[in-house]
Design brief:
The chain is about 20% helix and about 35% strand. It contains three helices and eleven strands, in the order βββββββββαααββ. The chain is elongated and about 60 Å long.
Length: about 140
């Protein structure tokens, strides 16, 4: 049996989950980590009565769960959205050339997205922020 712990930040958001067998945490739990239960080797988290094995604890760097002092709770959409960073898209002075647009199109398509689909997902896939405005594309390198 392995001990399972969570790590929270100063707002009680769960930022990590680990077991005392975890390779990612070779030094084990910190004194501030919270012991939640004993179970198998894979990290498990009980959220509102549902056991989740190795759940994603973050989405785009934003914690999905919180600790209420006794149990893990799913954060509300409002709480999650409030933590999302505001990304400002800056315009290039010159519009992209046809060759540049075709180059970006190739990057996006090799990432499994399409130019006509979700620009945010496509941008994440190639490490850029994309915006479509009046049929001109804007790019921002991250």
């Amino acid at each position: 049996m392995n001990k399972h712990y969570i790590r929270i930040d100063n707002q009680n958001r769960i930022i990590a989950g680990l077991t005392d067998d975890a390779i990612a945490y070779p030094d084990g739990a910190l004194q501030t980590d919270i012991f939640i239960h004993e179970s198998g080797r894979l990290f498990e988290l009980n959220v509102n009565g549902e056991w989740l094995t190795n759940p994603p604890l973050m989405e785009d760097g934003v914690p999905l769960y919180k600790w209420d002092g006794k149990a893990a709770q799913k954060r509300t959409d409002r709480e999650i959205e409030a933590d999302r960073p505001i990304i400002e898209v800056q315009e290039f002075v010159e519009p992209l050339s046809t060759d540049e647009i075709e180059f970006v199109r190739g990057l996006i398509e090799t990432s499994g997205c399409s130019m006509d689909s979700d620009f945010r997902e496509a941008g994440r896939a190639i490490g850029m922020t994309l915006a479509l405005e009046n049929t001109s594309m804007k790019l921002e390198r991250r």
